[in-house]
Amino acid sequence: MRSVNATLAPPVSKARQAFLRDVLEGLQSQPKRLQSKYFYDAAGDALFQQIMHCPEYYLTRCEMEILETQSAAIVSAIRAVAPQADLVELGAGDASKSIHLLREWMRTGMGNRYYPIDISGNIIRHLQDTLPEQLPGLDVQGLNGEYMEMLARSGQTPGRARVVMFMGSSIGNFTPEEAMGFLSEVRRQLRPGDFLLIGFDLQKNPRLILDAYNDRQGFTRDFNLNLLTRINRELDADFQRQDFLHYPTYDPSTGACKSFLISLREQAVHIGGSIVRFRKDEPIYMEISQKYTPDGIRELASRCGFVPVRNFTDDKGWFMDALWQAR
């Protein structure tokens, strides 16, 4: 009798299980949706870097101008209350903007500990490898995972203030109601006197806003479609990218800029053993990029447990980095 060596399938990771659950739950909802946090695999990271440097995407340039020219004023406003503090950044990205604040932070003796938090392990590894070379003496404590869980792990030094950075209009990825819930949870993670430095894209000419999410090079289109490629690769799916159209919209009355993928034909897609059916012209809601007014920003701070300290805007008045303190 021959012996048979059975090979056990590798265990399914918790991350893959969560990804599959979120994708199926979203695509089996009405209307269909996908969570924008899953945009950021290695290809998504690279595409977003291209988006940030394309001519239509003004947000990066505006916030870069603020941090290049006003980091000293930002640090001074914080230092007046907290002579030393730890810097924590939610969704750190490549830190190409944050490095200006970090440099001023260390120059003025505010501290040298930086906690970049990002869902992308690629980003965290990159920051840990490169930032200490650019800023000798910087102690980079990278945290890879969900924001609130990682925020709870940061800044455990008793009596030492934290300054949490949430830049790049990342708060715009939430509806106003979701933003209120998110920022209220951030506040619960902070001690009274801690700070939040948060970026907001301001309402402006609708054409400027819509063009930023529909660039001529197609980077934003490819960024959205890349999520289908990731689902194919990681969840055994069979999306055909050419059967979906990238469609952005902007409503100037509410400040909501939304992106969709539109099914160009009736089709059935297999995902991890399940089947999801699409009607011709049926949309998948991909993401929101909410735009704010200064009055709306002040109201949001107050309702979430913060006191506005000072606002920093670019020369055009298109973008705002708001400094709040936890009350």
Question: Quick recap of the structure?
Answer:
With 327 residues, the chain is an alpha/beta fold. Helix content is 39%, strand content 25%.
Describe this entry's structure for a reader.
It contains 10 helices and 14 strands. It is α/β, with parallel strands linked by helices. The strands form 3 sheets. Strands 2, 3, 4, 5, 6, 7, 13 and 14 form an 8-stranded mixed sheet that branches. A 4-stranded mixed sheet has the order 1-12-9-8. Helix 7 (176-189) links the parallel strand 6 (161-166) and strand 7. Helix 3 (58-79) packs parallel to helix 4 (98-107). 39% of the residues are buried. Residues 1-10 have low confidence and may be disordered.
Structural class: alpha/beta
Q: Report the principal-axis shape.
A: globular
Radius of gyration: 21 Å
Strand content: 15-25%
User: What is the N-to-C succession of helices and strands?
Assistant: HEHHEHEHEEHEHEHHEEEEEHEE
Number of helices: 10
Key structural traits:
alpha/beta; 327 residues; eight-stranded mixed beta sheet; 10 helices; single chain; disordered N terminus; globular
Could you give the topology of this structure?
Layout: H1 14-27, E1 32-33, H2 42-52, H3 58-79, E2 85-90, H4 98-107, E3 113-118, H5 121-134, E4 139-140, E5 143-144, H6 147-153, E6 161-166, H7 176-189, E7 195-201, H8 206-212, H9 219-235, E8 244-251, E9 256-263, E10 267-271, E11 274-278, E12 283-290, H10 294-303, E13 306-313, E14 319-326
Parallel strand pairs: 1-12, 2-3, 2-6, 3-4, 3-5, 6-7
Antiparallel strand pairs: 7-14, 8-9, 9-12, 10-11, 13-14
Helix pairs in contact: 2-9, 3-4
